[in-house]
């Protein structure tokens, strides 16, 4: 079995053979992974990081039909998508059930996989902060994570109380064995294939909604002050979006508009001019909320979406500019407010 066969076997252990096969046919896998050990007793962390990213990409295209269609259309054109980054939202609040507050719920699992926090991005108009987590072994090739925190302390008292009611029931998807494997991985950068299969299950489920039923009144309270917190109330820590890295964003946008896809009106350009981004508008999903009579009623709310990014070389480093941009991020975040 080749190392890449092993990678997709690991992916298959978490999400099944059909999904693993689909990913192999549609998503570019970094050749640089071959520089790192693949052995049943000493699997390098980079392989586990890539396996998790592939699983999460598949989870998102399952949730966003426009995303799956886009990826499959790219394959028909002879191109595999290049996974640039995924984004998640967290809540910086002490009342968070079993979960650590804010981004700590994810730094505890991203860091053992080889990701490191490289830069902070103020998202002040949204009362949020973002952090870019980049992989230390293959920074240009393994998809980054953009992890944001919403700060309820900057909102009204009523909003804060609603946040507490929503997230206080959060459970921890990582059990003691998952945490022990991550601890060993952080110390040695390697784990056994068996441990990788076991911990991947926990990691995969960490990117989901961990809290229970949400009261409709709380959802409306949150929505009045923060579309982002309202989104967290229904979607939790699911991937907010995944991003395809393209070589010509203007051409991609023109093609998608010709196909009448639900595109953002404009392209966001970073202060450096080297990073350009745009996106589909968020899909609409059905989620249940509990009304004032205790009845669980379905509502149409914003879900996740697909983003497109073009990165240019930084002349100072002669490397691809892997940074994010606060202004760009805030423009992209509006995609989940559009259907609110």
TrEMBL record:
Protein's name according to its UniProt entry: 2-oxoadipate dioxygenase/decarboxylase
InterPro entries, per database record: HGLS
EC number(s) reported in the record: 1.13.11.93
Organism encoding this protein: Pseudomonas lundensis
UniProt xrefs under Pfam families: HGLS (PF07063)
Record keywords: Dioxygenase, Iron, Oxidoreductase
Enzymatic class: oxidoreductase
Family under the similarity heading: Belongs to the 2-oxoadipate dioxygenase/decarboxylase family.
Lineage of the species this protein comes from: Bacteria, Pseudomonadati, Pseudomonadota, Gammaproteobacteria, Pseudomonadales
Cofactor or coenzyme needed: Fe(2+)
């Amino acid at each position: 079995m080749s190392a890449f066969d092993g990678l997709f076997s690991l992916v298959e252990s978490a999400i099944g053979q059909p999904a693993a096969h689909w990913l192999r046919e549609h998503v570019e896998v970094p050749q640089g992974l071959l520089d790192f050990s693949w052995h049943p007793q000493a699997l390098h962390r980079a392989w586990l990081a890539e396996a998790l990213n592939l699983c999460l990409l598949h989870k998102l295209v399952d949730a966003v039909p426009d995303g799956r269609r886009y990826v499959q259309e790219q394959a028909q054109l002879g191109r595999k998508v290049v996974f640039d980054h995924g984004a998640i939202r967290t809540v910086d609040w002490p009342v968070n059930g079993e979960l650590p507050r804010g981004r700590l719920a994810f730094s505890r699992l991203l860091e053992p996989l080889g990701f490191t926090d490289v830069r902070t991005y103020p998202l002040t108009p949204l009362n949020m902060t973002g952090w870019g987590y980049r992989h230390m072994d293959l920074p240009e090739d393994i998809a980054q994570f953009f992890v944001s925190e919403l700060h309820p302390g900057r909102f009204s008292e009523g909003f804060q109380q609603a946040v507490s009611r929503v997230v206080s029931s959060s459970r921890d998807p990582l059990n003691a064995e998952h945490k022990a494997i991550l601890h060993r991985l952080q110390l040695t950068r390697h784990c056994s294939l068996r441990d990788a299969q076991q911990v991947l299950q926990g990691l995969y489920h960490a990117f989901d909604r961990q809290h229970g039923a949400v009261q409709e009144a709380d959802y409306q309270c949150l929505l009045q002050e923060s579309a982002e917190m309202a989104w967290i109330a229904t979607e939790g820590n699911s991937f907010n979006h995944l991003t395809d890295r393209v070589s010509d964003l203007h051409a991609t946008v023109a093609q998608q508009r010709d196909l009448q896809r639900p595109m953002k009106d404009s392209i966001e350009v970073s202060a450096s001019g080297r990073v350009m981004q745009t996106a589909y508008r968020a899909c609409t999903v059905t989620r249940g909320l509990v009304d004032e009579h205790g009845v669980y009623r379905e509502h149409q709310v914003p879900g996740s979406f697909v983003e497109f990014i073009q990165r240019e070389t930084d002349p100072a480093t002669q490397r691809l500019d892997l940074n994010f941009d606060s202004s760009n991020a805030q423009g992209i975040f509006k995609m989940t407010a559009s259907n609110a």
